[in-house]
Amino acid sequence: EPEVTQTPSHQVTQMGQEVILRCVPISNHLYFYWYRQILGQKVEFLVSFYNNEISEKSEIFDDQFSVERPDGSNFTLKIRSTKLEDSAMYFCASSEAQLLRGPSDTQYFGPGTRLTVL
Amino acid sequence: GQNIDQPTEMTATEGAIVQINCTYQTSGFNGLFWYQQHAGEAPTFLSYNVLDGLEEKGRFSSFLSRSKGYSYLLLKELQMKDSASYLCAVSLSSMDSNYQLIWGAGTKLIIKP
After folding, report:
1. Of A41, A109, B39, B74, which is most buried by a Cβ count within 10 Å?
2. What does the pLDDT read at residue B99?
């Protein structure tokens, strides 16, 4: 069964450093998402991406964040200058476009990258 | 603002039935998802309701009332492996953009033998 994959599974970095989190969405999916979940807290939407551009982003997704689809398979989240409060689990998700109902389809999640900022 | 409420924690007995409620007040509504999340793992999809009524899928069923802003997840014949957090998420939609998922805080379900 196709699945979303993410690398690395765990990233430890120093405050102020840049990190890139990588995701490979399910191959026939067209909509991609990043979420984060701080330990013990709820899942929070960061950004959605379609047709090589951001379609929506939350207040959390400020100038230190960026996303990119550098090739036909990868989808990356870059955090330019990490802060202690960026420590969280970052989940990538993807969904298949449905032309009849719009992109109102199930989002399938990757296993997550645990980011620890020291 | 967007608001999704679920009980923080519930306890049930192996083999029994449990109902996890979710109420929501959101600007826009496209559908409601239920996800299961084991500690330290990613959410995994359980069900999706767009229309009012009950969707049954094996031991799990989900109900939606759009007029009441209410959903529940019903788990039957509980097994120990069902111990997890159950997340209610509302899909918002707008005319000119993708939808996004707004998440409840999750209900931690503890199954006792």
Report:
1. A109
2. 62
